[in-house]
Amino acid sequence: MKISSKSTSGPRQATVELNPVETSALRAALGEVCYGFDIPDFNLRMGTTESEARKLFEKMDQLSSDQPTSIVLTMSEVHLLKKAHEEALNELGAEEYGTRTGVRFAFGQDLLKEFSDELGAVESEG
Questions:
Q1: Does residue 126 form part of some domain?
Q2: Which of 120, 100, 88, 105 is nearest to 1 (CA)?
Q3: I want to staple 70 with a disulfide (CB 3.0 to 4.6 A). Which of 10, 17, 114, 123 is the partner?
């Protein structure tokens, strides 16, 4: 995973580069948050509305899952993607994460750390 800042005249954006496994894990996590889990106080916990989360899921759903890809997201969407992934790891745990996402739990944990590191680097730039 690689996140790079992108200057715009509107909301700050970033380009997120993903390999196929990362794409699958993040898409599945967002799907769980949007359609699988019952998340009380969704807006507070996820930092956005369910409607906005579903719009991001639709964007993620269009990405290729068999080759490296990139997507331009607002920084709010990047944060939502990270929160959704973290929520999926916490909610599903080691027993269900792999079954529900198709990705090993240990990989999901590594991806969350890498996501946090990349996001921190981008935010320290601007």
A1: no
A2: 120
A3: 17
